[in-house]
Amino acid sequence: MWQFEEPKYFYLLGIIPFLVLLFLINLYWKRKKQKQFGDLELIKKLSPEKSVFKPVLKLIVVALALAGIILALVNPKIGTKMETVKRQGVDIVFAVDISKSMLAEDIAPNRLEKSKQLVSQIINQLGSDRIGIVGYAGSAYPVLPITTDYSVAKMYLQSMNTDMVSSQGTALSEAIKMATSYFDDPQTSKLIVLISDGEDHGEGFEDAIEEAKEKRIKIMTIGVGTEKGGPIPLRYNGKIEGFKKDSKGETVVTKLYPETLKTIAKSADGGYVYGGNTKEVVEFVKNGLGNLEKTDFESQQIADFQSQYQWFLGIAFALLLLDVFLLERKTAWVKKLNLFNEKE
């Protein structure tokens, strides 16, 4: 398995097509100037040793050398063995509200983006815990199963949007039930972190909470939004075209309903925190995790990654050295092959 220590340097590969473009422009300019000074066939006869192939070969060599240097900067690493690692941690499922009300901008940049920021910052503080992600609105949607790969989790988290679930509302019961189904190990400590504005929460979440309690799952809730509320913007090509209206033509104002979230947290032996201050939320969840019993579990992972940059650097220097000895005149044996049908 490969790892790239400095993937940010991959963008430098864009220099290579730019280099090819400069070569073609220079070639075109030379031919244009040659036509101004005389007949091209006559110029060829006056410089019989000039090779058509060599400049192209030199370009290829330089481009490959440059690619080798860039790959050396990226520093590819290869895992040489598998090893079993013992971890201590908790299984956590993040249930993120993706209903249309989460587009309200009463908390910057909007409720949904703020929710993503909170989850991302919580993940940054985790060590060996396993995590999963659920999205929900009028129904629940599985986003990512339980995993220890935090980078993949963040990628899936950032892709979440309000179009993932067609039915609208805030089905907290569905979210809790789906999050509960994620936990595959009865021995581990389990936690659901539910992020929502608590609006239009539907009915029947009490049964879902009871099911979670039977499986010894704690639920923490995070309220996102303000009790004053705000309108739901309707965007087209990134620009606000208006705001969502009800059947009477009046602008809908969506608000945070913390009481619902507090009730869920209290019933499931968890806790509630307002999501306005990221640092406070992270500390709250961190303290909650500290009170949970950590479970030992084993996982296999590729280890002992070794740097491979020296190979790419060596090849690059060898190619640059070769370029020094590549002259633009014809090589004797290549001249005999007459690859380009060049007339003497």
From TrEMBL:
Bilayer-crossing regions? 12-29, 56-74, 309-327
- Keywords, A to Z? Cell membrane, Membrane, Transmembrane, Transmembrane helix
Q: Which Pfam families match?
A: BatA, VWA
Q: Which InterPro entries would you find in this protein's record?
A: Aerotolerance_reg_N (IPR024163), UPF0353/GerABKA_families (IPR050768), VWF_A (IPR002035), vWFA_dom_sf (IPR036465)
Span of domain VWFA: 91-309
Q: Which PANTHER family does this one have?
A: LEUCINE ZIPPER PROTEIN 4 (PTHR22550:SF5), SPORE GERMINATION PROTEIN (PTHR22550)
Protein name (Swiss-Prot/TrEMBL): VWA domain-containing protein
